[in-house]
Amino acid sequence: MRFYNTLTRRKDEFVPIEKNKVKMYSCGPTVYNYFHIGNARPFIIFDTLRNYLEYRGYEVTFVQNFTDVDDKIINRANEEGISPLEVADKYIKEYFVDADGLGIRRASVHPRVTECIEDIIEFIEELIQKGHAYEIDGDVYYDTKSFDGYGKLSRQNMEELNAGARIDVDDRKKSPSDFALWKKKKEGEIGWISPWGEGRPGWHIECSVMSRKYLGDTIDIHSGGQDLIFPHHENEIAQSEGRSGKEFAHYWLHNGYININNQKMSKSLNNFFTVREISEVIDLEIVRFFLLSAQYRNPVNFSQDLLDAAKSGMERLYNTKHKVEFLLEQAQGMIKEDEKEFVSKLPSYRELFIEAMDDDLNTADGISAIFELSKFINTTVSEKSSKEYLQECMNIFCELTNVLNIIQKKKSDGFDEDKINELIEQRSLAKKEKNFAEADRIRGQLHDMGVEVLDTRQGTTWKKID
Ligand SMILES: [Zn+2]
């Protein structure tokens, strides 16, 4: 298994620190609002990475934080007339609603900054003791010049960094690239007591602290969006390695951007969609499928046309699954002589899938392998198929789709199956009695319920109307 490692700028063979175990940290949302589609991408990608590692036999501990103190949260709290913690509580709940819709599992731990303040203070104290941080009038800064490796992830040297540092001329800082570990409390802000007076943590420190708290000094994989490479991840490395003297993370994985209708996402272009807004017009399962249809490092263009294409692709896979489900209801017996060759070919689709996913989590080619499998199943199953062969098809189809957590809905989700079967039976009876008007009436009734009746040689079945 190989991953493109931002640190080395090449695909590195994956070798975990501890055999069969993976420690993984991914930067989570700042909970001041519903999360937007740009954030959905890393959440889905790294959730899939975790699924895949588990599928390949690793025991994964996955930490994803919630930033629950931040300027944006404080502003939102003032707007809504509630406390910052109430804002955070509210949007953490909403995060899980949207994450569920997108098929994103809960992380092993979802730590919150406000629950780690003591750990953060201790961590900063150690950095000061080790000469990597300094206090000025209630603020604490990281001394970037004190850390030799500063710039190694984003491949920038100190001179470039300091020349390029934004002209936020805080001339109390030793170097322009120094960043805040602790911020002195301002009037009307939330704060905690610390050795440097009342204040709150800067943004970067939380990930170093939480990662260490739950995973130890060195982890296998650290991931996030490309936009986090600098300064956020660069600063995390400086903090963690400055304190421990050990390498922080062996593999740094970053996903590419999302464009909306070929334009960069931005507030000014008014194309900054939240997942909640999108869920009102499109099934979030399609969004997951769509985002996994591209290799994670490539940019993705989010547009109606491409979403429609993803939807019809997904429906093809659903049709295969439902067809096998339907045939299974009636089928019997063990593998037949003429099916032996088919059965022997099924594992090749698993190999194709693994080959794709092992190569830097290429979900695009992984999905192609599932389409190939789907095509093969469609051409080899019929009403004559044995139950055992159909079951083999179903098993491998579900095995692969489960890794990506796609094609998970049952045909009957959202439908009253008993009622549908009852109506189908009544319609069959009406047809038998040559009461075609009644049969048509029932077909119409089912149609109104969103159900299309299909008469096949093996009997009558149904599918959802698209
Ligand atoms: Zn982070």
Automatic annotation (TrEMBL):
GO terms for cellular component: cytosol. Residues 352-415 form the Cysteinyl-tRNA synthetase class Ia DALR domain. A motif ('HIGH' region) lies at residues 29-39. InterPro entries: Cys-tRNA-ligase, Cys-tRNA-synt_Ia_DALR, Cys-tRNA/MSH_ligase, CysS_C, Rossmann-like_a/b/a_fold, tRNA-synt_1_cat_dom, tRNAsynth_Ia_anticodon-bd. Gene3D superfamilies: Cysteine-tRNA ligase, C-terminal anti-codon recognition domain (1.20.120.1910), HUPs (3.40.50.620). GO terms for biological process: cysteinyl-tRNA aminoacylation. Its cofactor is Zn(2+). Binds 1 zinc ion per subunit. Its EC number is 6.1.1.16. It is found in: Cytoplasm. It holds the Pfam family CysS_C. ATP binds at K267. This is Cysteine--tRNA ligase. It comes from Filifactor alocis (strain ATCC 35896 / CCUG 47790 / D40 B5). The gene is cysS.
